[in-house]
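User: We ran a pulldown and think these components assemble together. Before we commit to crystallization trials, I'd like a predicted model of the whole complex to look at. Sequences follow.
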Amino acid sequence: METLIFLIFAALAVASSLVVVAHRSPVYATMSLVVTLFSVAVLFVLLGAPFLGALQILIYAGAIVVLFLFVIMLLNLQKASAAAGRRGGQLWVALPGALLFVGMVGLVFWRAGAPALQPLTADLVSLKGLATALFSDYLLPFEIVGLLLLVAVIGATVAARRAPDGEASRLLPREDFVGAGDEPRKEARS
Amino acid sequence: MNSGSPEIIATLVKYAVMFGVFINVAPIMNWVERRACAYIQDRPGPNRVGPLGLFQPLADAAKFMFKEDVTPAAADKLLYLMAPVLALLPAFTTFVIVPFGPDLTVGGRTIPLVVAPVDTGVLLFLALSSLAVYSLVLAGYASNNKFSLLGGIRASAQLISYELALTLSVLAVLLPVNSFRLSDIVAWQQAHVWNVIPQILGFFVFLVASFAETNRLPFDLPEAESELIAGFHTEYSAMRFAAFFQAEYTNMAALAALGVTLFFGGWSLPGVHLTGWLGAIVGLVTLVAKIGVCMAVFVWVRWTFPRFRYDQLMRLGWKVLLPLSILNLILVAAMTLAGWL
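Assistant: Here's a predicted model for the assembly, 531 residues in total across the polymer chains.
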C-alpha cells in the first residue's frame, strides 16, 4: 500500500515538474508546480514527517504559488510566453544554475560521506525536535534567512513604489493591467 | 496505512456520516438564505414550492440539471472544466479532522469519532483549505472574460491576506493546549473553559477572517455583482455554477465547524458527560446545532452590511486584523507562561 502510494506520487512529482519547465503557458506551468509540491508533501508524510508535509502545502502550494499566479495574471504573460520559450539566453542562465545545484548536492554527499547518511529519527522530524534544532543548533542560519526575506520585502516595496510625480510603477506598466482581459489569447495556444 | 479492515470500515462509516451532514448544507442554506434575506428586506421570499417554500432547493437543483451547460468559445477548456472540481475538492476534505463526539467502543475497539485522527489536525485543515483559492483564480483566468479575470485576481490577493490573520488566530488556540489535535482542544475546553472567553480577541479575528476566506459579504469582492457582474463565475452555468455554489456553502460549514471546535467547545456541552452511543449521537447533534447557529450569523451579516471597497478590505486585513492577531498571540503566550490558562 505504502509502496503503491509512493510510486504514484513520485511519478506524479517527476512528471509534473517536467511540465513546469517544458510547458509554454505560464499558467499551466504554475499549476503543475502546485501538483509537484503536493506530491512532494505526500512523500514527506510517507517518510513520517506529516508536519513538514502540511507546511509544504500550507506555505508553498497554498500561498507562494498563488502569488506567482497573481503576478502572471497582472502582467498578462500570455503574449510574451511564446517568444520567451525560444529565448536562447535562458539556457545560459539555467545551465550554470543546474550545475551549481548538482555540485552543491555532490559536495554534501562527498563531505558527509556514507556513514553520516542515516534515516531521520522520529524525534527529529517531530514538531518539538524540529523546533529545538532550528532554534538552537541552526539558529544563526535561521536568522540569516529571516534577514534575507526582510531584504527581499524591502527590495520589492522599493521596486513597486510609485514615483513621486504620480507616475505609475516602473515594474507594472498600467496598460498591461487594463488590457489583461480584452486581449484575445488564442494565438498563444497551440 | 496498514490498518486492518475494521478500521477502514469505521473510517468509511464516519466519513459517510460527516459527508451526509455537509452535502446537505447547500440546499438547506439555499432556502434559509433566501427566506432570511426576504425577511430582512420585508418581503415574502420563495413560498410557492411545498410548505413554506421548503422544496424550492429541489426545484432549483432540477433546474440546474436541465439548463444548458455553456463553455465560452475563447475559454481555456481544460482549466475551465477543472475549476469547479477544484472548488469541491477542499470543501469535502477539510471536515475530516473535525471531531464529532467522544470515543466510542464497538466490539472491544475504541473508535475516535473523527474521520482522520492525525497529529497535524489543524494544520491539515489550513493546508487543504488554502488550496481552495486555485478554483477561484483558475475560473477567473480560464473564462477569458475581463470581469472574471478581475474577480480571480481579487480572490488571490484577498484569500492570501486573510489567511495570515486566520492562521495566527488559530495558532493562539493551540498554545495552552500544546497539541494540533482538535480532539485535545475539545478535551481542554471541557476541563477548563470555552476558548472564546480568554481569547475573545482571537475569536473576533477568526470571525472576520472567515467571512473573507469564504467570500461572503461584506467581503465578496471576487464576485461583487454590482461591479463585476458575478466575478470569477460570470461565465459558468448549469451544474458547474451549482458546484461553486455548493463549494461556497460547504466551505462556510467547514470553517464554522473549525470555529466552534476551537472557540465553543466543539461537540461538547458544559456539564454534560455522556459516553457510548448516546454520547456519540448527542455529540453529533450538538456540533450540527452549533454549526447551524454560525451559518445563521453568516446569513444575518451578509444581508445587513454593505460591501467593502477593495482598498478598505486590504487595509482592514493588513493594518488591523494582522496586528490584532499578533497581539492576541503574544497575550495568549504570556497568559500560558504565567499559568493563567
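Chain A has one domain: 2-87+138-188. That may be worth checking against your pulldown data before setting up trials.

User: Thanks, that helps.
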